[in-house]
Design a protein that fits this description.
Layout: H1 3-21, H2 30-36, H3 42-66, H4 72-92, H5 96-124, H6 127-156, H7 168-180, H8 199-229, H9 236-253, H10 255-262, H11 266-283, H12 288-315, H13 322-352, H14 357-380
Length: about 375
Amino acid sequence: MSQSKKIRIFITIACISFLQGLQFGPSPVLAQIQEHFSSVSTSLVQMLITAPSLVGMVFALVSGVLVTKISKKKLLLIAAAVAFVTGIIPYFVDSFGLLLAMRMVYGFSLGLATALNTAVVAEWFEGDARVVAMGVQSASVGTGIAITTAGAGWLGASGFTNSYFINIIGAISFVLILICLPETGVAKAEGDNKVRVNGRVFQVAFLGLLEYIFLISYTTNISMFLAENYTGSSSAAGTLTGIFSVAQIIIGLLLGLVTRITKKATLSCAMLSFALGALILVLFPANFPMMCIGSLLCGFSQGAFIPTAMVEVSNAVPPVAAAMASGVFTCFSCIGQLISPFLLNTAAGAFFGEATAKNVFATDVAGMVISAVIAALIMMGPGKKRA
């Protein structure tokens, strides 16, 4: 592959990642939305963030079939257009019902982007180059989330509806994907090259479910953890979550080097990184520098685990089934996120007598260590390479 084509593919990967980042666009203005639509329950307002992932699970799986009917480029162009249109329409109509409905329709874009990002990487890169490309993809997702949330927050400072204009990212992505991604036609499912997944995909997807059960607890509990244990600045939570995101970007860019060192133990090491980070938070709840180190280690876990797992599932199937394999992994990961709060709060209450954020992080430590052992047994054992 020529250097210019490689750059165009990397630009495409970044654009797809930014489409994924739009999921978190409303997060900086949720309080303003809640205040404006005062008759709407808090749970429904929070669904502006979670509803797209629920719809996205379905379309991530459906993408495995769609790529045999419609080319990846056309699907991604549709996803970018939908992300732009559904994000802008609520600006013109003051209706929470419409806003929530548009966010759910955006889930179509999120599901396709999540699955096809891996499929694009699998189509254009192999071996170590695929690992590097998935690392770039992970870094791009982290950057996309950071830019989306910061941009939406800045735009929404003068009125929450102005934050909707962050969805112009969808229009920009449409143009860049149109220019940069070569058209390769529909995926051919014939002979040994069929749209199907094997046991290895489900094994790695199960590990993804375990990772996300504990990983998502950092995001959902860090503010409450600080409220319980720390008396410093109110901006501390933003600083720690920023460190978490930056760690994902850094480890994504260094993923090729990391996997060469850790080899088959990469997923286990990523899980242990989170366990160590959570342990530091538990042991030093009032020491902000140590909490920064803990957040860094937690972010490393996300930055290393997700792209490595995506490489594993794409390597386990024929190229035509890469989108389906990615969709299965995405579905399991979303399930992990959905059950995490109930599972961890229940476990923390049972083990420690109270479901505080600190006790949840202590539960994370034990859970991630056990998960790392399971990951080691699965990844070190024999695995069928292709379906």
